[in-house]
Description:
The protein folds into two domains: 16-47 and 308-415, Aspartate Aminotransferase, domain 1 (Alpha-Beta Complex); 51-305, 3-Layer(aba) Sandwich (Aspartate Aminotransferase, domain 2), CATH 3.40.640. Helix content is 39%, strand content 17%. The protein has 14 helices and 17 strands.
Amino acid sequence: MAAIASKARPETALDADRVRKDFPILERTINGRPLVYLDSAASSQRPLAVLRAIEDYETHSHANVHRGVHALSQAATEAFEGARERVRRFINARSSREIIFVRGTTEGINLVAQSYARPRLKAGDEILITALEHHANIVPWQMVCEQTGATLKVAPIDRRGELLYDEFLKLLSPRTRIVAVAHVSNALGTVLPVKRIIDAAHAQGAVVLVDGAQAIPHSSVDVRALGCDFYTFSSHKIYGPTGIGVLYGREELLAAMPPWQGGGDMILTVSFEKTTYNELPWKFEAGTPNISGAVGLAAAMDYVEGLGVEAIAAHEQRLLTLATAELQRIPGIQIIGTAPHKAAVLSFTMEGVHPHDLGTILDTEGIAVRTGHHCAMPVMTFFGIPATARASFGVYNTERDVASLVAGLQKVREVFG
Length: 417
């Protein structure tokens, strides 16, 4: 992927069998069969290191942050702000002031849409996205367009699920104020040329937001190397807890943006006549934050770097290559999204079988895949299908999981004749 920076130097290939022992949920059986978890693109499982970090915080250090002078509050504040610094290092931001804790990618995009875009845009301005986007990177911009009179433009894709970059460039113009693109398509796994997109957008004076939800678990992201203005992702995609995510923004942009929500901790002084807002990053963090979530996210980043980002990416690519070849041998299977540069996501259909039925039968075999439109209905409409089944791989998956998926799909064929 673009802007990969070395954060870890694995000496050997990732040992998935050893890694699996770190994830207690994988010891479960489903319908009497060993769990085969192939739904990490929706939400990855959490290793013991993350679970224990959260438990340790909740057991020994929990209190509200920032305003307390007692020992527990100071310990909680240290853990919370330490997590912010951990995130800064993980994505190579210049300052921890550029790291905003949010509930997840969706909230990060909405924050930028309402705090950066809405006050600035007017009729005649344009926002440019791609046809690969998750609903979370479509709807907030539609809302801003309704609020401001701006126009939403959509760059098309081809039948492989790749962005038509030349068409993107044609849509980019001096009227383009914001470009918002996925780093990796959640529905198809396509890796977008985000560095080229960012450079082209900046040449036209546009600001760029990157939805990194599906990139952050699979590659090393360096926001300074990318040059993006905003980058947002969710903890639960990178082996951390749910309910917390990150919005990175360039400090000069964040400093000029008004708060999105009002309440405690985003203020310095309050009177009935006037409120003075807090400094970055707390200006955007109204209310008691998800402290244990931040602690868990920091532990997840430690865990990922301990395994080695490059080793993880290589392991997942091997599984994707194997699974793609195996599924292509099964009669009636059509893979949706065949871009040559993909993350470890495999979307497919089976002739004569609705994806929901396919997923239900796989579940009887203990195999967890995602079925549906994957919050990317325009992608499904483009391919003329209602939904796909999606198998997505993580650090804990093995060749045995691929074999189980293939066997499960053969069972589906038998059931449906």
